[in-house]
Amino acid sequence: DAGVIQSPRHEVTEMGQEVTLRCKPISGHNSLFWYRQTMMRGLELLIYFNNNVPIDDSGMPEDRFSAKMPNASFSTLKIQPSEPRDSAVYFCASSSGVNEQFFGPGTRLTVL
Amino acid sequence: AQSVAQPEDQVNVAEGNPLTVKCTYSVSGNPYLFWYVQYPNRGLQFLLKYITGDNLVKGSYGFEAEFNKSQTSFHLKKPSALVSDSALYFCAVRGPSDYKLSFGAGTTVTVRA
């Protein structure tokens, strides 16, 4: 298995632009998580999907952030409009039931 | 509420010496405990977990961890550290019916040759 796949690996954009991050979970995993990692805040859980349904989005910072999971093999995290404070590394992780989570390589987002 | 404390921001050891990374936790019910390692510009890699059974858990790359219920600790250990073990290590916990993992702040391990 290729593991969790994320794209793009790096994204540089200007303030106000829309950013879309993509994730393909491990096949057969029914749970998907989006995290954000910064030096100041460490790892933060943004949203959790179970069987493609959003269960907990309490970590989404504000309305500018949205996430979807249209099917079991694809999820997106969108920021619109982006702001410099959104600069961070965004990770997608998947798991099967309550087992350990497997993380993707991350997307490093820089908003100028 | 569940939480993890990693009391050391940094751990420095010489290659060949034992390595210990400390972790204490707080959770309702029986804990599910995990260790992850993160190399520069990479995602978190799963090392090992404790759910039930033997208090000494063995994982990847020669790492092991000991669950101590009375001290609510889950310290990560390696008998003989390698320079390639230099990385950021995260401890994480969740309750038996939780999906949300609580991560510690991380401990940077530097192994000098």
What does this protein look like?
- The complex is a heterodimer of chains A (112) and B (113).
- The mean pLDDT of chain A is 95.
- Chain A has strands at 5-7, 10-13, 19-24, 31-38, 42-50, 53-56, 65-71, 74-79, 88-95, 102-103, 107-111.
- In chain A, the strands form 2 sheets. In chain A, strands 2, 4, 5, 6, 9, 10 and 11 form a 7-stranded mixed β-sheet that branches. In chain A, strands 1-3-8-7 form a 4-stranded antiparallel β-sheet, with no helix packed on it.
- By secondary structure, chain A is mainly beta.
- Chain B has 113 residues and is mainly β.
- Chain B has strands at 3-5, 10-14, 19-21, 24-26, 32-38, 44-50, 56-58, 64-68, 73-78, 87-94, 102-103, 107-112.
- In chain B, strands 2, 5, 6, 10, 11 and 12 form a 6-stranded mixed β-sheet that branches. A 4-stranded antiparallel β-sheet of chain B has the order 3-9-8-7, with no helix packed on it.
- In chain B, a hairpin with a 5-residue loop joins strand 7 (56-58) and strand 8.
- The interface between A and B is medium-sized, with 20 and 21 residues.
Give the arrangement of secondary structure elements:
The complex is a heterodimer of chains A (112) and B (113).
Chain A: E1 5-7, E2 10-13, E3 19-24, E4 31-38, E5 42-50, E6 53-56, E7 65-71, E8 74-79, E9 88-95, E10 102-103, E11 107-111
Parallel strand pairs in A: 2-11
Antiparallel strand pairs in A: 1-3, 3-8, 4-5, 4-9, 5-6, 7-8, 9-10, 9-11
Chain B: E1 3-5, E2 10-14, E3 19-21, E4 24-26, E5 32-38, E6 44-50, E7 56-58, E8 64-68, E9 73-78, E10 87-94, E11 102-103, E12 107-112
Parallel strand pairs in B: 2-12
Antiparallel strand pairs in B: 1-4, 3-9, 5-6, 5-10, 7-8, 8-9, 10-11, 10-12
